[in-house]
Amino acid sequence: MLRLAARALLLTALMFPEMANAQRWLTLPPTPTLPDLAITGQFTPDGARHYYEIHGDNAKPAVLLLHGGGANSNYWGHLVRDLVRDYRVIVMDSRGQGRSTHEAATISYEQMADDVIALLDYLKVKETAVVGWSDGANIGFYLALRHPQRITALVTFAGNATPAGYQPNTNPDVMSAYVARTRAEFLKLSYEPKSYAATMAALSIMWKKQPTLTPKDFSAIKVRTAIFHAEHDEIIRRSHSEEIARQIPNAKFVLLRGVSHFALLQDPKGFNASVRAFLDVR
User: Fold this and answer.
1) Close Cβ partners of 237 (under 8 Å, ≥ 6 residues apart)
2) Where are the alpha helices (DSSP H) in the chain?
3) What DSSP character marks residue 168?
4) Nearest to 132 by CA among 68, 204, 50, 89
5) What is the pLDDT of residues 19-59, one digit of tens each?
6) How confident is the model at residue 104 (pLDDT cuts 50, 70, 90)?
7) What is the pTM of this model?
8) Which H helix or E strand runs over 52?
9) What's the rounded Cα separation, in Å, for the pair 200 and 107?
10) What are the structural domains of the chain?
11) Comparing C-alpha atoms, which of 129, 106, 109, 115 is closest to residue 42?
C-alpha cells in the first residue's frame, strides 16, 4: 500500500510539482544544470580522465562540491548558483562517474579522496571548504582525516561511517527512479558509456564493504564540521548520523526537515541556506 501511495505521489510530483510540495520527501525533482559560465577541464594523474568545472572569482574562498554515488556534478546546480556569489565553486565528477573515466579494477573512498587532492594540486588550490553528499560525504570524511591542512570546513550530508549505517530502503520507488535517472545520465555524459555495468559493480562492492571509519578516526578530525541528516532519509539511519556528529569534536548536527536523501533537489532553497549558514561563519 505504501509503495502504491509513493508511486502515485511521484507521478503527481512529475506532473504537478506544487501539489506534492507538502510531501516533497517522496519526490525526485529534475536534475538541475550547472551554470554555463565556467572553466571546464580534465586532468589525468593516473591514466583516468577526471572532469571538473570552476565557477566564480578565483580571488574568493574555494568550495569543492562532491556528488553522491552514481550521480554527477550537475546535481549541484542549485547550490553552485547560490554559492558563486561569494565563493569560487569547484565541482568534479567522481572516478568512473559522470564525465570522469575509471581504469582500475576497484573503486574506494580513499582513492577518490586522493583524486580530490590531485585535483587541488593540479589547480594550485591550497585549501578549500568541502560539501559532500552521500558518497561525497564519505570522501569528505577521509579528506578531513588525512589532509586537514587542505580543508577549511566540511559539510557532510547523508554520509556513513561503515555499512552498518544503512537502514532498509524506506522509499524504493524514489530510489528506483534515481537509479534509472543516473543510468540515463551516465549513458549521455560518459566518455565510456559501455562501462556502466562495470562501474556500478565496482561501486556496489565498495558500498558493501566501505567506508571503514571508527570512533577513533572521527575523534581525530579537527576540521570544523557539520553533519547534515534528512528527516526522511531513505537509506541512512538518523541515529548513525547523530553518533558521527558526537564523535567529531565540536561537530554540528543539522536535521533537514521534510526532505529525504535528495534534499538538495527537493528543497534547494532550504538546503542552500543551511550550507551557507555553516560556511559563512569564518
Assistant:
1) 165, 166, 167
2) 2-15, 77-83, 109-123, 135-146, 172-189, 196-209, 215-219, 238-247, 263-266, 268-279
3) -
4) 68
5) 456 699 999 999 999 999 889 999 988 888 999 999 999 99
6) confident
7) 0.93
8) strand 50-55
9) 10
10) 33-279 (3.40.50.1820)
11) 115
